[in-house]
Specification:
Blueprint: E1 4-5, E2 11-15, E3 21-24, E4 30-34, E5 39-44, E6 48-55, E7 59-64, E8 71-74, E9 77-78, E10 84-87, E11 92-97, E12 100-107, E13 117-127, E14 130-142, E15 145-151, E16 157-165, E17 168-169, E18 173-177, E19 181-182, E20 185-188, E21 193-199, E22 209-224, E23 235-238, E24 244-246, E25 251-253, E26 264-266, E27 274-281, E28 285-294, E29 299-306, E30 309-310, E31 316-320, E32 334-338, E33 348-350, E34 353-361, E35 368-376
Parallel strand pairs: 1-3, 13-22, 22-31
Antiparallel strand pairs: 2-5, 3-4, 4-7, 5-6, 6-12, 7-11, 8-9, 8-12, 10-11, 13-14, 14-15, 15-21, 16-17, 16-20, 16-22, 18-21, 19-20, 22-32, 23-35, 24-27, 25-26, 27-34, 28-32, 28-33, 28-35, 29-30, 29-31, 29-34
Amino acid sequence: MSVLRVVLSGILGVLAVHGATALVGADSAPVFQSSAQVTFGALYGERAIRATVLAPVPAAVSVHTGRAPRRVFVGGEALPGDAWQFDAGTGVVRLSLPAGTSQLQMRFDDLADLRPRQVAVPVQVASDGASAAAGSIEMTVADERAFGSLQWSGPEGFYEVQARRGGAVAAGLEVVTQAFRRGDTMLLVSGSALTVRGEAPAQVVPLDLLQCRLVGAVTPTRRLDKDSVPWSTSLVLEGEAFTGEGGGAVTRSTEHAGTHGGGCVYAWGTPGHWLAWSVEVAKAGDYSLVLVAASQEKVILRSVQLDGAPLSGAAVLRFEGTGGWGRSNAAEWQAVQPVDADGRPVRFALSAGRHELRLENSLGQHMNLDCLLLAPAP
């Protein structure tokens, strides 16, 4: 029998030697023995020793545990008490394993069932001090890990998402998404994928609620007849006259047809790419926003900030495509305006003085921009 001496450091590496196999510690105490040549790896923890044994033929194995396990599992199934033995004198567990790969666990806690299980955890949307159910996320718990995913079907907008248990933030979990993120918030629209994953000690489901706090709803827009836009009384910000930019580089154009000031911006298709305009407001009051844009995309989202904060009532705007890019057909430039749930223009207050208006590409859709207007609200 070949013998390999190692110093244990918590994780045992892969081992393969000719003939029968033995692994001993620095003090010559047996760590692992097998009646056949095998590949062996193990992870030692307070609650369990997890081992993988790859045996070409059935083998009798001994694993040093130092204390008596409460249960022994092979392949997720608990072995009956007469299928394994613990030698108190040597601190070794003995059992027989079949040919092939065996996943072995020697448990020192009260965990009696390692079989995967599914649990539906409720999803809650919180907004303005109220909360409402928004379906559930199906969590799978297996091998003391938890995993679950869902396709978002709740209200669209920017959310702070937390996995919670017992009224507090759940430990050892992370919420993963491919959705656009801004700081601690994520933009969830219809079909956005959310994944929750992390540790599930003792196979306990680590969360009892997935809480999604809405911090900025997606606001619809309506189209306006460009002839009805109050050009003469509005503050007009030409798209190509932006005063700040980050996350990408748009292209200014004077070749697109029918633009208001003779120019526009295009090539605005990168998530997180923002443009900003500085504006001097002479008279304090309530205003509404109008944009003149063109896009062949089906739906476009842009987040809006005023002086560094999400625009009240219009933090994220949803636009419908106009059928083209406005390059040669002036009719493809359409005026749109954010509206509330009752179809009325979204109003926001502006003080006299200088302000900054910022639009940010939320999901990567392209949109050409002719101009923006700040129109005094009637």
